[in-house]
Amino acid sequence: MRVPAAVSRLPVxxxxxxxxxxxxxALVMVWGRDLPVAVEVVxxxxxxxxxxxxxxxxxxxxxxxxEPFGSLxxxxxxxxxxxxxxxxxxxxxxxxTDTLARDTxxxxxxxxxxxxxxxxxLLTALRRRVAVFNPEGTGAALAxxxxxxxxxxxxxxxxxSTPGAAFSGPQLVFAAVASxxxxxxxxxxxxxxxxxxxxxxxxxxxxAVAAGPGEPERYATGxxxxxPAPPMRTALVSFGLLVVALVAVVGLAKVESVTIEQxxxxxxxxxxxxxxxxxxxxxxxxxxxxxxxxxxxxVQISLNLALGSAMASIGLTIPAIAVASLWLEGPLxxxxxxxxxxxxxxxxxxxxxxxxxxxxxxxxxxxxxSLCASYLFLATNP
Length: 382
Hints:
Blueprint: H1 15-30, H2 37-65, H3 69-93, H4 100-128, E1 131-132, H5 135-158, H6 169-193, E2 208-209, E3 218-219, H7 232-266, H8 272-295, H9 299-315, H10 317-324, H11 338-355, E4 359-360, H12 362-380
Antiparallel strand pairs: 1-4, 2-3
Helix pairs in contact: 1-2, 1-7, 2-3, 2-7, 2-8, 3-7, 3-8, 3-10, 4-5, 4-8, 4-9, 4-11, 4-12, 5-6, 5-9, 5-11, 6-9, 6-10, 8-9, 11-12
């Protein structure tokens, strides 16, 4: 779990305080109205700001409660945003949104496993020539992401119980339960059982710091030391602002849903681009945090963020969408197409080869970024 800087207090005029309130006020003012273009732009900016604010306040609360509940709070907050965006668009979008959940989750996997991982390795390799990380923890995270992706996104294409690339009812229930179980086990391993596998490797010449019973060995790195936990009052304020931000995000997404779909259709782009837009919006805070950690020579934290985001996107979003599908009209298409399966298979192969040595250079970073660029290009030009 990443630790936000300066979380001991929340100034009244801080953007993290003002943006959620402004977004909620804007939601009340624009709900059910036809909006001019200028107002639409303002609403989109407030929507993006509310997403960033929600993740920030989730981090504050998570830092207060500690692990393993901290990671769960972060994951649940991001999942609420992602699921809220998906469901609001599916409700208003008709038949073109049957594949929206699949497109969004797959976009999140490709952007995290290639875009964020590639960017993190690139920034570290440019500074240190070689990015060094823990292959045990990173490999376990990658294996979990790939397993979740195959169970939830690949298997529906090949099952025969129902026509098309959709699960039958029992199959969807099994996929949802399996996803939750895998995600829960990973959180336990990462935060309780084998925490040391997911911590930055010590650098030469740095002395070990004494650890308590059952705690992983730490090193006197200075920059890696955690900030003190925020006081209870700050955490409670952040929790309230988190709820406000989440309500604003879901509401503003509903307001902008028709406009987003009309803009995509008007540009002649395939419906899958809507899923890419949602994934980019949701993953923006994680991308910025991963880049920041990579610049500080903490590539292990960057990889944890990237793969953890991919894992939460599948392991929590798919079960939530499965429950929501009970009230949604139309089929829930989760199976990937041939091109997407090829890209996922190539991502798996490249990811394994990158993780196994525990070291990566500019070449591996560039390969991952090339895969991300290929996915984005093919999403707009299938």
